[in-house]
Amino acid sequence: MSKVVGIDLGTTNSLVAYVNGGAPAVIADESGDTLLPSVVSIDALDTVHVGREAQRRLLTDSARTVYSVKRFMGRGIEDVKDEERWFPFKVSGEAGGVVHIHLGDDELTPPEISGFILRELKRRAEAFFMKAGDFDPEVAAAVITVPAYFNDAQRTATRDAGRLAGLEVLRIINEPTAACLAYGLDKRREGIIAVYDLGGGTFDISILKVEEGVFQVLSTNGDTHLGGDDIDRVFVEIVAADLGLDPATQADAVQAVRKAVIQAKWDLSEFDETHVELSRVPGRTEPYSRRLTRAEFESLIEPIVVRTLQPCRRALEDAGLEPGQVADVVLVGGSTRIPMVRREVERLFGRKPRTDLNPDEVVAIGAAVQADILVGGRREMLLLDVTPLSLGIETMGGIVSKIILRNSTIPASGSEMFTTFVDSQTAVDIHILQGEREMAADNRSLGRFKLRGIPPMPAGLPRIQVRFQIDANGILSVSAHELRTGIEQAIEVKPSYGLTDEEVERMLIASFEHAQEDINARMLIELRNEAETIVAATEKTLRRPDFAEIAAVLLKADEVGAIRAALADLKRAMSTDDRDAIQAKTSALNQATHHLAEVMMNWTVQAALAGRSADDVAAKGR
Amino acid sequence: MQPDTSAIPIEPCKHCGTDAPVDVHFCPRCDRILTLGRHGDYFTFFGLHRRLRVDVKDLEQRFRALSRQFHPDYFHNASTTERLASLERSSYLNDAFRTLRDPLARLEYLLKLEGFAPKESRDPSATVPQGLLEDVFELNEELEAIQDMRIDGAPAGELAPRLDAARRPIEANLAEHERQLDTLMSTHDARFDAGDPAGRRTTLEAMRTLLLERTYLTNLLATVRRELNGGETARP
Fold first, then answer.
1. CB A75 within 8 A of CB A98
2. What are phi and psi of A217, to 5 degrees?
3. pLDDT of residue A513
4. What's the CA gap between A52 and A58, in Å, rounded?
5. What is the mean pLDDT of chain B?
6. I need a surface site. Which of A109, A201, A496, B18 has the fewest CB within 10 A?
7. B91/A412 Cβ within 8 A
């Protein structure tokens, strides 16, 4: 039987996981990486690069490289205007229609770009099963996760991406719910659980009640445009202003800034201060370095962190709960590694959040568990999720009449009666909306439906019942029939911000050549990945605030100089396609840092021991 | 105690054609999930009597047990008919649970089921219920006076105490309504258990009146609250 996998299609990174004999596990690629950077690059020869190779191309060919495509899924050009300036690629589109992303001469929609990421994950999983000697390694179907606060258009776009990648999307599930499933499986906890999920581009909060193996979502809230990307942008803008960079003409340099800023952000989750460092900056002879303390970092990101707290309060209110009734708070998403985020979450819920599961992997694991449930492997667990936003239709005067309320358990259905306004009218227009606001114009338009084939009758006489069904994916379908005659009505759908089925059929992503099918290209990519890993680790050590102190005491006089030289050599080699050189310089840097790695290991162990004994003293003192 | 099923209509199973009561979830012969009956109600769906006191813990347990029987997760490889039946039955279950879990929604649902739906369902605030005429008259006069003061530029600090004072009798009245509703719910269930349909209808009728008045009072309080917020529309 072909395999069914769980996929976390993230803003920054994507992962694929699988349940093997009851035990879920994340699948790594040939280099051992579990995270696939959600970056896609299409070069001038129409070769598609996905993941770390595409990420590197951000610095050399940024105009043909897309990252954070999830922020564009199911959205219109008017939604992304404000941030477009900071993306290296150009976007276009008509109001109310799908966004088009320009990569050189190619023009692709967000589901196509996401499709490339999914196809790479499918390939990765199939390679894994093949290597394991599985006689049917094909991956034909998947459960894909989306932010809980994704609307219908965003969910549908995700499903389209799966279809374009050649995957049958068995189910779309919500990321926080998937995380809770993985968490519940691991900890066997029951009671009220809050999942706080701050990822690269989206924020979700879900409150669940776990009882007798049923994971019932009580409420959910969030912001589909709030995450680590927004934090990065604050600092990119500061550094770009420092350097006088223009994002419109110096996109590659802006991407180098972004990379350095992200590195500094990561450092600050561990250290009290760091430096944003750029070795080469256009128009400057000197390298750039800017000291950044955690206090400064926190004062600048505070508005972003605070924006996550109001949705948390609303979710609690909707669930009818006080913070004290929450048994566990689970953190999901890379941005929850930021100490300030942990502090604020702890303050709001009055308890220390759980951090014992890997916040990057827990969603993919939950998706794999759900895939296992669907194919019949695991029956003792059941997920009952909710629809995050109310569904309604536009009525006279532009007012919304709600049909299915937010936080309703899905599947959910509702119906509404329509009639005609003029004699012999045979069609009625229906405008479907999602959101909580009173006026239609303030909500998200999901689509316009035309009811046709109404039997000609005097005005007001036909009784057309329109039925709205939200399925377990949180995706809407509509059916209608006229009650007096029993005639089923044809419904014509024009999705807002979405693709029609015909458009999806037309998008043949197979016409693009896939770089990673090519064995030579593949080896080069793996060598670069390996090189990049050691470069990042070395640079991080060199940037440590206490490095000078360590070096003075524990390293030989010429050691740091030798390391810096080997590092520069390798970085030079990496910018070429010379496989032998990259390999040779990687082992040279490996050798040069061998002693340093040992020293750092001892230093860390000693620091940890010192920390523990301090705690012991404190414990005895109580 | 099982609900009396003798009066429940019959519909054939789409798979094997066996007649099955519409409130049964699975075919008695072929064991397949049945398409949703059109004549069922939330109470019988859960296997409950039409009583107003519901043990929420028990209801939750029934909800979880039924979810485990119907959920689309478990019909992934089933026929199209069964998948549709699972989807419809799950949707109905979720709706039923949401309604029966909440005491007021439960009461409103039972009133509708028993033919006591409020007549002016479109806009309950349009006509003042008889029992509230005096209260409403007084409050409206006071609100008008306060609005005039606001227009004349009186500071918010001067308006708030008067609004608070105006609110108090309404709140007291609302609390009294809730107390009476609570008593009547118990009376209703006692008469249900005693097999006294006429007595039961009397309590249902009384509860309909109280419920209408209660809705009206809640709307009045919302108006006062809007005034307190400086005449702005309160965020829902």
1. no
2. -75, 125
3. 53
4. 10
5. 82
6. B18
7. yes
